[in-house]
Amino acid sequence: MNFDNILMIITMIVSFVLATIAKKYKFISNNLIPLQNILVGLIVAIIEWIITKDFEVALALSGVIAGGTYDVVHNLQKLREGDWMAFRCRVISGGYCEMNQGYKKGTHYGVDIVGKNYTLANILAHSDGVVVKARGNCNKTYSSNEAAIKDWGDGFGNFVMIKHIDGYYTQYEHLAYNSVKVKVGDKVKKGDIIGYMGSTGNANGAHLHFQVNKSTTWNDTIDPTPYLDSDFLVNPVNKDRSVNQIYVNVSDLRVRDTYSLNSNILGILKENSYYNYYDVKENEGYTWYKLSSNEWVGNKDNYLTVYPKITIEDLEAENELLKKEINILKEEIASIKNNYKVIFKIGKYYLIKEKK
After folding, report:
1. What are phi and psi of 303, to 5 degrees?
2. How large is the angle between the packed helices 3-25 and 72-80, nearest 10 degrees?
3. Percent of the chain with pLDDT over 70
4. Is this prediction's pTM over 0.70?
């Protein structure tokens, strides 16, 4: 067991003990996590400093944990590599971001991020889509209590919501006053600038609150972390031989908005899964399959296995073929019975001898 694993175990144990003590003796009521994070962060930092003698990494790690980022092993590895918690991120200019607060269903419905080294940046559209909500005229920052008595539009401050492929929505909140560059109905492309990082709404300092929603309802969310630098996964369907289907044999096969490699990428297909298709085109050396009105996927080198739908005629023909095969087997069995006799039998195996 390496040091990182030991550190993670110690963190979990200490976290549990502190939570239990705080709850039992009511040191804190509804604000357990911040105190717990700070204490655990200090303990982990001391252990890291003693073992590695690297005070800067220990101090940074303490701050990361106290701030609520609990993936200790992953964070520790990044800190030791000198990355200081910056990671690839396609929704802000510069391509890298740092996370202030992670996703937690029921309490925090997105992730709070800033640019690398805590810099501000332009906000970029995650993927191609259509703007369904937008606001850019909020010039206030509200405290939590003030925001609680207002509608969620005020809590968001200036924000943009974009509808993408397969029912995915992205939401970008707390944008700077008058920085929003899109309006409802606008079509956007991946990487288009839609605003600038700010602190409007219920925000403690300038940052981007980024959400991935499954509808336009503000809290109908999924964890956005896996999508900070990746395409959306198109949902597969069940196997159904009554419709035309493809089966995906490779990972990260891209879905495009038309049958060309020069077209826009909308998402990716799930490996080892089925999808219905409704049209077929040949272009650029690929066979393209239409998944919906504007979703196409190209097949080459066995990326896909194609299963055309089975019709009544196909089933009848297959039934006739099976009947012929059964008749052939019956004839072979009859021939064996007439020309051979059973000498010995073990389970389903027979020892036979030709009749004289």
Report:
1. -60, -35
2. 130
3. 72
4. no
